[in-house]
């Protein structure tokens, strides 16, 4: 079901100012990538600190917490829904988090806006699993997306994924392995694994309270 457009959405987005940047493209079929509008991270954040990326940030709970824990790192949180990203940006402004920005747009176009080898880590937290196989190409760990991540990750950069969906997790394991990534710190029940410094997201709390295991992995490019 499509989310109803928020009241005064455009005004709210405008009040967020430079906290939200836009990855807008006229082509909606993700087929035209001839032109690039690369972000200048030092200008966007006002400093040369390293940058990390969350794709599909939702209301921004994870992004806000990790940014507060690591003030020496800049974070860009991507979300395609204006309805959702406005809540995340407003919360970050209220909490006065200077090293966090949000980008509205589709992940398919990340390499048109994110410079090559500019992102340290990528976080995929509870991405939509698209359970029907006919929609597999929309999953954020599909090989098409992994090719994009390879372009924008720095040497030594990692992808950290969390999900509650076992089939999506199995699919992700296969896709990472088939696309030249090495896997480490794989957990089939994160909250019973003893993993430290975990940041619990909105969905993670909900699923854990239902007794569902949380699956997690880290992936990096093999040399």
Describe this structure in words.
With about 220 residues, the protein is of the alpha/beta class. It has 2 domains: about 10-20 and about 45-105, Rossmann fold, CATH 3.40.50; about 125-223, Rossmann fold (3-Layer(aba) Sandwich). About 30% of the residues lie in helices and about 25% in strands. It has 8 helices and 8 strands. The protein has helices at about 10-15, 40-45, 60-70, 80-95, 110-115, 145-150, 165-180, 200-210, and strands at about 20, 50-55, 75-80, 100-105, 120-125, 155-165, 180-185, 215-220. Strands 1-4-3-2-5-6-8-7 form an 8-stranded mixed β-sheet, sandwiched between helices. β5 (about 120-125), α6 and β6 (about 155-165) form a beta-alpha-beta unit. The chain is globular, with a radius of gyration of 17 Å. The relative contact order is 0.15.
